[in-house]
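Hello,

I think I submitted the fe (ii) ion job twice by accident. Can you confirm which output corresponds to this input? Input:
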Amino acid sequence: MPHIDLEKIIATLGNVARILRDKPDTALSELRKISNQIDQQIPYRDGHSARVCDYSLKMGNALGFSDEQLVNLEAAALLHDFGKICVEENLLRKPKSLQGEERREVEKHVMRGYHILSGFVDLDEALKGVRSHHEHYNGLGYPQGLTDGNIPLYGRIIAVADAYDAMTSDRPYRKAKSKEAALEELKRYSGQQFDPHIVEVFMIVI
Ligand SMILES: [Fe+2]
Ligand SMILES: [Fe+2]
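Support: Only one job matched these inputs. Its output is below.
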């Protein structure tokens, strides 16, 4: 497991959740620190959550989200991979794309993160995004195999931001794609992996 003081992080998350509605600026700034700390501990993830958050907020703004929706989207994006702290570090470091049992083990980060965080009732809206960020528009994603509009909107947005950041970052088993190639890929999987409307919005804001 990554070296993280989970007890301390959970305590801070409790405070964040409590003040998320009344003092969103303070809460989100605390949350950014936590997600940054976690990213630094997870191999090849440095800055990932912050970038996913940035892309997601650009889309949320373009979609005319209310302040409250933007707060929930930001919290969801910052916490989307929280469950990776419960995944064996050697799997995250493997110099090849994972298959089979190992792949399923990494996929468990979604529900592990969701279960840890679901204790904080004030995060319930944001958690919809955490839980659904690996669902696919065509129903072939995980953990629930939800389809199109049944996937919470926060999850559909984070899915596009997450995939773009993953493609444009180096991984142990492959080099980063160019921005153009990554956008082409998003277009190719629009309507399959991704919500076509969200892909369109991303093309405009990026
Ligand atoms: Fe993820
Ligand atoms: Fe991610």
